[in-house]
Amino acid sequence: MEALFDLFVPIVVARIIDQGIKTHNQPYIFGQVGLLFLLAFLGIAASITAQWFAAKASVGMATKLRQATFDKVESLSFAKIDQLSPSSLITRLTSDINQVQTGCNMALRLLLRSPFIVFGSMIAAFLINVKAALIFGGRAAFGTGRFWHHAGQHPLIPKGTKSLDEITRLTSENLTGVRVIRAFRKEKSEVAKFDAKLTAMTTLNEFVGRLSVALNPITYVMINLAMIALIWFGGQEVNQGQMAQGQVVALYNYLAQMIVELIKLASLIITINRAWACGDRVGQVLATENDLTYPESGAKPQDKSIKVENVSFTYPGAGGPSISQISFSVKPGETVGIIGGTGSGKTSLISLLTRFYDVTSGNLLLGGRKVQDYSKEDLLAQFALVPQKAQLFKGTIRDNLKYASSQASDADLWEALKVAQAADFVSSKKGGLDFELEQEGRNLSGGQKQRLTIARALVKKAGILLLDDSDSALDLATSAKLRQSLAKLDPKPTTILVSQRASSVMQADQILVLDDGKLAGRGTHAELLKNNPVYQEIYYSQFPKEKEGE
Q: Global pTM?
């Protein structure tokens, strides 16, 4: 309707000239001017309405698309997330979806309006004068050529978004690793690296921009030639009595409208190309198939026992296995220590137990059944995990602890804090449980963050407690008190304690020694210290005085 009202305007102007000004009919002129104001008012009303609905549709679409993409990322397995870098996912969730939203909004507004104006102007021109309308046809053909010129830029746009991924990754790395960068005085090299990536993206965008504006001078030459041709031809027709002066003005207005819309359409194609390319990238995330499937429901675990049978595991794209032919069993309520050097497969084994990854070969049994037989909710309900890297979220201490169980009372929270040796420092904070944590707990020390993550796991009161090197930032005295408190838990959970410290695992019921992804030994502290060379090397490197005492 907006376009239709605009197409009526040149007709009204032609009537004013031919039937009003030519005959000096002032009432008719005023009446037609009033009609122009009415058309303008109706056009503005239609324009506002169209823009409101277009904005609502595009924002609503982008909201649902962003939510669907975030839900998809949250549902992906660790193996799939490893393949999609965090920087790329951040770009797709923010910049790419914003581009899709802009493209959708512009398409709804102009992709419907511009062709209507262009073809409507041509039809009106043919109704006024067929010969003069041929000028419109030539101008429309040139506009179509420009459309294909801009459409050809589509393959270049994904390269620009990939460059943005790299810049996002570098920015994230520099912000999280700023202390390391400054400690090694690498600011200049990091700035140079960032500048190189930024220059590469700028160069690509400039190239795409040059392609976009390459036809602009030719376009304006063609515009002026079309104007000159129309005025020249119209003047001859008026002199010969074949056309009225108002019809020439109407044709001129129609040509001006068509030119404006063709220029808009050319710019719109760039926006749509960019939105299309960004939409492809978002679509790749939505089309990613999850490699982990869970039954909707299954049998409950009979007990909290764990059995590992000849398990091997290789990360996707890795050159070799991270874990090879490991077998052991854990009885309910038993404490098992896992020790080994960096890269020996300790964390990988924990990830397999919780089925963050699926084993490459072998079987993992929980409560007498394979972990693949349990639903996702039933499986993860059995575990309380303390990850290797302490991860806290922005919010209060209470919010972070209730992440494990939203139904936990304050008494439950303080009990967990007491076991985790965190009650003293939490009570000293302003507000206690209501103390506000910054993102990733930046306003806490490393040891405080680790103790809060341990407390969060304890709040869950799960049957199996997984501690993945969770005392690395604690001093020996605090670590010893923590182990004593865990040993007194009632009911006692099945505990798997991963550590590089011999002192952390030496009291365990059994200790697993991993070396280069293989099980190098199994037994108690005394047995391993007597018979296992790998454990001896680890232990005596940490307690050299005991070796000297021998």
A: 0.72
Of the candidates 301, 302, 297, 322, the one whose C-alpha atom is nearest the C-alpha of residue 312 is: 322
Q: Are 502 and 509 in contact (CB under 8 A)?
A: no
Taking each helix axis from N to C end, the angle separating 112-128 and 245-286, rounded to the nearest 10 degrees, works out to 160
Question: What phi and psi, each to the nearest 5 degrees, are found at residue 223?
Answer: -60, -50
- Are 262 and 146 within 8 A, CB to CB? yes
> Distances in Å between the alpha carbon of 7 and those of 15, 42, 136, 160, 264?
14, 13, 15, 39, 17
For 482, residues 6+ apart whose C-beta sits below 8 A from its C-beta are 419, 420, 421, 451, 454, 471, 474
Do 150 and 209 touch, CB atoms closer than 8 A? no
15: left (phi over 0), alpha (psi -120 to 50) or beta: alpha
- Take residue 109 and report the two structure tokens written for it: 């507004």
Q: Do the Cβ atoms of 305 and 331 come closer than 8 Å?
A: yes
Q: Read off the pLDDT of each residue in 26-49 and give the average, rounded to a whole number.
A: 87
Contact (Cβ atoms closer than 8 angstroms) between residue 464 and residue 382: yes
The residues pairing with 511 across neighbouring beta strands, listed in sequence order, are 337, 523
Torsions phi, psi of 499, nearest 5?
-160, 160
Contacts of residues 196-202 at CB distance under 8 Å and 24 or more positions apart, as own/partner, are 197/163, 197/166, 197/167, 197/170, 198/167, 200/163, 201/160, 201/163, 201/164, 201/166, 201/167
pLDDT digits (tens, 9 = 90+) for 373-428: 888 888 888 999 998 888 899 999 999 999 988 899 999 999 999 999 999 999 99
Q: Give the Cα separation of 172 and 177 in Å (integer).
A: 8
How far apart CA 101 and CA 186 sit, in angstroms, is 39
Place of tokens 């459309």: 147
Question: Tokens 């041929």 sit at which residue?
Answer: 134
Q: Can you give 464-521 as a three-state secondary structure string?
A: EEEEECCCCCCCHHHHHHHHHHHHCCCCCCEEEEEECCHHHHCCCCEEEEEECCEEEE
For residue 361, list its beta bridge partners. 312
Question: Taking phi first (over 0 means left), then psi (-120 to 50 degrees means alpha), and beta for anything else, what does residue 339 get?
Answer: beta
- What phi, psi does 462 have (nearest 5°)? -80, 165
One-letter-per-residue 3-state SS of 203-225: HHHHHHHHHHHCCHHHHHHHHHH
Peptide bond into 332 cis (omega under 30): no
